[in-house]
Amino acid sequence: MKNKTFLFALALLLLAVSCDRQKTPTAPALPADIAEYDMAMLDNGQLNFYNSATATMTPLAAEKDSVVNVCFEPDILYYCVAKDNHILLRCIDLSQPNPQPKELVDWGVPYDQCVTETYGDVSPLECYRGRNTLGLYYNFSWDGYWFNKEKLYNIETGEIAEWTWEWEEEGYAMQNDEDEEQTEENYHYISTADELQEYLMQTEGQYYMTDGNDGNYVCLTDKMDFTPYISDPDYATEVEYEYVSSSPDNLKVLYMVILEWGDFPHGILAVSSIDGQLQMPLEDTDCTGFMADWLDDGSLVYVGEEPLSPDDPDADESWHYRPHCIKRIYPDGHVEIIAHCGEFQMKRSVVH
Question: In angstroms, rounded to a whole number, what is the distance separating the alpha carbons of residues 33 and 50?
Fold first, then answer.
């Protein structure tokens, strides 16, 4: 009788566990409407997704390890995590229902070899679209203040190889055979069209847009004074301008304003409309190590710094900004802080 009672109780227990499991399905790794989220943002190891139309931020709850970099593509999200001094490559197939993280490979490089000895930057995850390959830099060098080696992951075969000059030369040759006009865009992803670049020129400290005919110029910089952005007069140089990208509608230009030279160029980023009416220095940026990209609606998203009030506990005499603040400049020039994160990636299907 005792055995029968025990078996009956065990059956009830198993039934209760089964019912409980049915009531608690696996939590989704991504929101159901992930197709409408057009950016991935990284904040101290936490990966978040951002919908620029609704200003909605959603964390990647299914990932428990610390995320260190990310490459956000239309169908697959690639990212690396740090675990026990290993750097592991993982992915999420965004086209699948209830997508979950999947581990692809251990890069075979200690995580601490992927961190710079200058500012503690972590190697970015590069995507070479024309080669169907991902790249991870490592081995910091003081000669160039950056990493001098790179591991390559072949997405099709899953094999890892070491970067060599032969690989790059063969890559360019392959792309030239396919489409000579699109070599650079295919080899290393460029997010915006560069139609405006050939119409830009600089002279006598100003930047101009020209229609290609002699004498027809529009100045893009005459309403801005760059003097306050020179941090050290000993390193100041003649103002130089370097084109970065144009907006999807080709009505605005993003460019560097180089004001000083040390080991790297320093200065600010600026945005101008091609008619010269909008001229906006991005006061909280620097030419070195910036991140910026265009949204489909003509907004510019970039990583800058947030000014601190004097009573902010993080403010002191030498530091008045909070770094890694992601901002958005709307087409009308309005600026908005959208997140406090280290970096972001655009969803490629959204950007031209």
Answer: 11
